[in-house]
Amino acid sequence: MGRAAGRSQGGLRLLQLAAFFSSFDRFAVAPMLVTIAASLGASLAETTATASLYYLLYGGMQPVWGMLSDRLGRVRVIRLTLFGAAVAGVLSAAAPNLAVLIAARALAGGLFAAVIPASLVYVGDTVGMDSRQEALADLMAASAVGTALATVLGGLAAYLDAWRLAFAVPALAGVALAVLLTRLPEPTGFAAEKKEGPLVQVGRVLSGPWTVVVVGIALVEGAVILGCLTFLAPSLESGGYSPAVAGLAVGLYGLAVLGWTRAVKLFANRLGASALILIGAGMLALGYASGAVGQSLASVSAAAILVGGGFAFMHSTLQTWATEVVPEARATVISLFAAALFAGSGIAAMAAAPLAEAGSYGLLFALAAFVAVPLGLFAGLARHRYSERRQ
What is the CA radius of gyration of the chain? Predict the structure, then answer.
């Protein structure tokens, strides 16, 4: 039993490492946007497409990978997409112009899209409800470390005019991880599961009202948290700070997620899901309000810390909820949840790009703070009603 537990823990560590690289690749671009625009002779609004289309493809491919993981296996899909993402990373690093870079980043987003959702489903398949939120929090903590290092090292790469390297490193490191993942077994009983047609399963899942509620909340959450987070670093650079300093400041977001995740693990059973969601929404509103007040180093750093806390409290709770609503089709629900999250972030990034181009960061962050309040109230009430109905 001890050896089996050790193998299980080792497997979860590999999934955490995969989440780390996926998050690193996704967040490294934010502190490099201004530098990339200058290097390739493009505007900031045009260059923002390297992030927004990445998010859209990252979200749009979630259901595809979710269905494929039901048929090919969770681990196999992660390994295949890590190999493909290496190709996209090399293309990104070698891109001669903005059009090629945007296409390569979109491809990378579509491939890295498989990693975290398949890891979430693997945890849902192999970890009991009594300890599932803790396991998911550990997965999110690994993702947070990747986010923190991505923003710090992305800012440093921009400062050194080595932004191409920041695209190649995580993808190539993912190849080594794909090889290591050969030792991770598929969930027990996976091969014996009855497979429905993909459209039948999606239709059945979306016929449940709670699935629609959770996915809808994720869409708005992605817009508020990840879409607007993209502009914290550029807001500092617009005030004269170097990309390295901006990356360090926004890197506090990832460290904050890591630290606040520990608090979530401590209080999850004491406070309940609805309270955790409300706390997260309050932190989001305060964080973006800080960014709206002014784009100084102190205010943006405070925004990064508070938004990280909002993500830790709200997102981990919503993520756990998504694994519960239709347990027999968990992969499909998680893929739709993640698709909505990143579709929301991509849409918000594109919609906010003109405000960033005009330097209207105060208005941009004020809108994010405003939306966070009804988001938290609705999500908290919905989670409370869901618990009542289950009981």
Answer: 20
